[in-house]
User: Which sequence fits this backbone?
């Protein structure tokens, strides 16, 4: 029987990443204002745009990294597929706290909303680190052609993930808006930094 | 003309599995509480989280098994594609009873909601067994390279499916909450047990 | 530069088919009845289930045929991609009239709802026939290895499509329920009949 | 380690294009009229159909062009993936202004709605041009086998994009309906014109 390849894991993961990112737009809505007030309403809902862009870029960056790291993985086992499933479960959940941020960022409830959002991202970072640790320990699922130096480069890319989202989580208790903006900056700047540190 | 390959069946199936799993999050919602009550509301809707995790893992496990079993299948015919379509029809329906469980698990209507949920999963298990039986009988669609021992291992993986979901269905009449928790445990533990029994 | 292959057309088409089919479930909803009335409400909305199954199978059958017929097509041009896009535009629209059927089949407005539904399917059948005619005329996009007999078999599969959906459309003016049931039967029986007539 | 191929970028992009296009249908809805008024209501919401067709074809045409142009691209780097992600972020946002157009085109608020719609498409055209410029400058990501004449043909296809959507944007301030119709015509006629100018 053919071995468990990585192609179909990637296909399913790509699907969940793409759908979760695209569903985010459904969370944006105006409360049917009269036409004359539409312009003002579109400005008033700026937290929806901030939350949309932050979550879309965050999911996108995870996807790019998932793509990048899967290249080091030569085969999969069922435990790995289960960890991957838990990671996707968390990613697919992101639209819900994103909507909370969109709806509550400007008034009371903003701390609760952003704490829920940050907790979802922190769990994601933790699951993603476990995902990599499982595959990498003893080169369990690593393609034999991949060099140790390449694995260490990926390790360096993972290292700041959990600490940074822990900072976001703590910051949510102090300043919810700052925590969302930091999340956006992480997504926007993770790419170049990942290029600096994680590439060969 | 090229033969009906299995690649595009997998692509369409992966799509439906991934979308059905990701749509589940749309079922989670808070009834626009005031900000001060958001925290309490997020705790109050715990059945939404339970239903989300249960359905996501269940769909994910079916997907992993579908993936696993398709590797034994060498080609497809139209009847097989139709059975696969019925299976996907049931999987794509799961978000609806999931929402019923999320909305009604804590009050009157909980039996009705969980019975509908369990019935959907029982039909799924039955269709999936038919799916495998059709392909396997007389090695109708089996790849010639796959050994009988491998097929018997997959058979053993299928054997508990219908009986277990029948237990869930019966349990739904007695204790709806216990039926949902059993469904979650089945999804969470099916993976290791499948590893023990179904693998070479 | 690489030629326009058919693989990515299939990927995009598969995506739209799978998403349109899976979105159908979002159209099913109960109007938040009290728990005691949930069972009655779940029976009352039977048109939602009928509409869901009918549309899911119809989209699924088109997908299976699309899959089947793409195997005869060796390459694509931009006009073909545009016709394919119009076909997908119509397929992706199906959830809207499906919801109309679900909501109005049992009372006044049932004719209007089913006429809109049947018109959408008739346009689909017409666009799909144009899709095939364009590729097939003068073997414009046909793989050189495909025999004329195979093309004629596919022709026979297409022949009844527009007439049958025209019957559904006319029937919608007389008996909306009968028109929906006929649509379901077409989807359920098209597969075996296609096997009889269109296969080698 | 395997190089960053273009296959998975295409898979993720195809996913977002397909989902964004298919989600558009969720924006179409009738406000639960009584059955007797359903026919009138279905006519009254013509802006929903216009907005649906315009956005679906626009997303479809971008997808066809994305497909076409990816064939010239031999490999990807992280910056390119990030630009691609921003492009998808904008494409996935389209359902929101599409709904604004559907809801407000016929009354006050029509200018605001169509300006938001046109701005989204203008940003898309700009990001897409940057996407191509980045890959093409100094043949940074171009497949070595692609000839300069082919690249210049693609350049000619990109040239009118930003100016045309700028015209739509300006027109939105004068006549919102005309701006939407022009957008539809651009999508409907871009294909043949692209065939005339961009093909070998």
Assistant:
């Amino acid at each position: 029987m053919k071995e468990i390849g990585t192609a179909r894991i990637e296909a399913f993961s790509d699907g969940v990443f793409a759908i979760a990112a695209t569903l985010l737009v459904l969370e944006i809505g105006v409360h049917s204002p009269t036409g004359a007030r539409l312009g003002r309403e579109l400005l008033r809902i700026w937290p929806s745009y901030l939350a949309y862009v932050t979550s879309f870029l965050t999911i996108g960056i995870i996807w790019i990294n998932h793509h990048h790291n899967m290249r080091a993985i030569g085969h999969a086992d069922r435990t790995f597929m289960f960890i991957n499933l838990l990671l996707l479960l968390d990613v697919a959940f992101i639209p819900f706290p994103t909507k909370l941020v969109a709806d509550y960022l400007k008034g009371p409830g903003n701390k609760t909303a952003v704490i829920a959002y940050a907790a979802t991202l922190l769990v994601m970072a933790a699951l993603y680190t476990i995902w990599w640790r499982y595959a990498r320990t003893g080169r369990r699922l690593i393609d034999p052609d991949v060099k140790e130096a390449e694995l260490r480069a990926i390790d360096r890319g993972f290292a700041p993930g959990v600490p940074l989202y822990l900072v976001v989580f703590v910051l949510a208790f102090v300043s919810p808006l700052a925590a969302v903006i930091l999340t956006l900056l992480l997504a926007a700047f993770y790419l170049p930094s990942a290029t600096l540190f994680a590439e060969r």
Q: What stands out?
A: Residues 27 and 96 of chain B are 8 Å apart (CA to CA). The mean pLDDT of chain B is 88. Chains B and D do not touch (no CB pair under 8 Å). The two ends of chain B are 35 Å apart (CA to CA).
